[in-house]
Amino acid sequence: MKQTDKRIVHVKKGLELECKGWEQEAAMRMLMNNLDPEVAEKPEELVVYGGIGKAARNWDCYDGIVHALKELEKDETLLVQSGKPVGVFRTHERAPRVILANSVLVPKWADWENFQKLEAQGLTMYGQMTAGSWIYIGTQGILQGTYETFLALANKHFDGSLKGTLTVTAGLGGMGGAQPLAVTMNEGVVLAIEIDPERIEKRIHTKYCDKMTDSLDEAIEWAVEAKKNKVALSIGLVGNAAEILPELIARKVPIDIVTDQTSAHDPLNGYVPEGFSLERASEMRANDPQTYMQKAKQSMAKHVEAMLQLQAGGAIVFDYGNNIRQVAKDEGVENAFDFPGFVPAYIRPLFCEGKGPFRWAALSGDPEDIYVTDALIKELFPDNEGLHRWIDMAQERVAFQGLPSRICWLGYGERVKMGLAINDLVRKGKLKAPIVIGRDHLDCGSVASPNRETEGMKDGSDAIGDWAVLNALLNTAAGASWVSFHHGGGVGMGYSLHSGMVVVADGSDNAAQKLASVLTTDPGMGIIRHADAGYELAQEMAEKHGVVIPMNRL
Ligand code: NAD
């Protein structure tokens, strides 16, 4: 097969093994799952998600990986360098079956320009976070992350529910499109401003958004009525955020929460300036990009000023990781950073407890296996209301893509409990086939990303990359089934280092030992990283769970 050939891969399901063990088979199926057309954005180009995030460097390398996994013995380890299989060594059964490194560049070279040059020479690939580490599960991931953020906000400010509150946001694109459903899952009302009506229609079609209008009067009427009656409702309003927000302020609409997910990180392609139709925007992008970007940035400044004004008026305002504050600041809005990013505002306390986006997929391909695990998790954590609400809603509203899967946020102690219980169900034959257990790289102890996950760390350690490396090394020592170390995921080249792990629950004793170790070391890294940075909650968690921190024992 030549590199230029384009192919479509469908994930293999069922009980028949093509590899010499379930760990190898799981790695092969999860690679295929990442590229399944139900899951991947551009499968024929091996692109899974997030711009150019790929699962293998090219189709020859894909074939090489699949072949190597089929030959791999259960005491061997395959090495994958940015999507290319480069070696197999005898290690031992408890060691990982695969170790991967993606897009890692020496710091002085760590920018897009150098990356693109090296990629053009066929020497590397962009692995994003879960694309090159074979644990992407489709849109359920972003929906759950957004749900969890709004739940954390509800817990902090509104007694655990958004009932009777009105959230105003903008941008209903690939990721931002999860916002309306995430808010209504938390029982709130949301008014989402989106310039492109087709984007709203798509969200209505997939049931992520309830209603749509291009009339501001109608949108306000619906929103205020629903807020008053404490009914969950999501409204997509066709319009420009930079124009609508000041109008909402002028009309004194009772807004409780404000955020934004326009693609402000990219002033040319991601943000439409005020007063522009979509046609005019696309014309000017092509003909006069410099003027376009200038206008987009000015509108973003106005947008942020309105957000600041709403904050001054008592609303809860946060940045959702799109860099809009930085653009506004560069445009002269001196106090743009007066409202916080979502990690320091809501997620960091969860990270301090070792919590993060834990996920699992059923290798049988049978949705029933996931429903069995849904019942299991509710049984194991009977008092966790937010978790129960999420599982019920996910069953009702999330369509499986590729291998059936589930995601939820679990912390230190909880992950290992769930992992071992799943392994027991596999052993007893209550699940049809083994389960793959992993997580996003946006997790408590696995990422260094100063503009996002490690923004504003208490001790100033935002840019310290050691933690992400230690995480990968520790999970390797603990015996994960595959471990990966990446650069540049989420926020781009030069801005992040992060690592991933996956463990396979195949019902064996070996799997039980691996799960017991890895599902302890991995969230444990979150606790020690945040304890080291001076977070009291993480110190308390370490104390409570007996996580050893040598400097505390002097
Ligand atoms: P996208 O490009 O698919 O969607 C952006 C949407 O904003 C588009 O639908 C566009 O029409 C709309 N838009 C642009 N200008 C507008 C304006 N002035 N008024 C109203 N609507 C406007 O992007 P996406 O994948 O949805 O991601 C959105 C942003 O959120 C990105 O910057 C992304 O990096 C960020 N993000 C961050 C996190 C995180 O930190 N965890 C998660 C998801 C997304």
UniProtKB/TrEMBL annotation:
MF (Gene Ontology): urocanate hydratase activity
Active-site residues, Swiss-Prot/TrEMBL: 408
EC primary class: lyase
Pfam family, one: Urocanase
Pathway: Amino-acid degradation; L-histidine degradation into L-glutamate; N-formimidoyl-L-glutamate from L-histidine: step 2/3
Annotated keywords: Cytoplasm, Histidine metabolism, Lyase, NAD
Annotated ranges, domain Urocanase C-terminal: 349-543
PROSITE patterns in UniProt: UROCANASE
EC number, as in UniProt: 4.2.1.49
Predominant location category: cytoplasm
Annotated catalysed reactions: 4-imidazolone-5-propanoate = trans-urocanate + H2O
Domain of life: Bacteria
Cofactors required: NAD(+)
Domain Urocanase Rossmann-like: 138-346
Subcellular location: Cytoplasm
Residue ranges annotated for the Urocanase N-terminal domain, each copy included: 11-135
Cofactor binding description: Binds 1 NAD(+) per subunit.
Binding annotation for NAD(+): 50-51, 128, 174-176, 194, 199, 240-241, 261-265, 271-272, 320, 490
Family as reported in the entry's similarity comment: Belongs to the urocanase family.
Entry-linked PANTHER family: UROCANATE HYDRATASE (PTHR12216)
Function, in words: Catalyzes the conversion of urocanate to 4-imidazolone-5-propionate.
Name of the featured protein: Urocanate hydratase
Source organism: Caldalkalibacillus horti
High-level lineage: Bacteria, Bacillati, Bacillota, Bacilli, Bacillales
Encoding gene per record: hutU
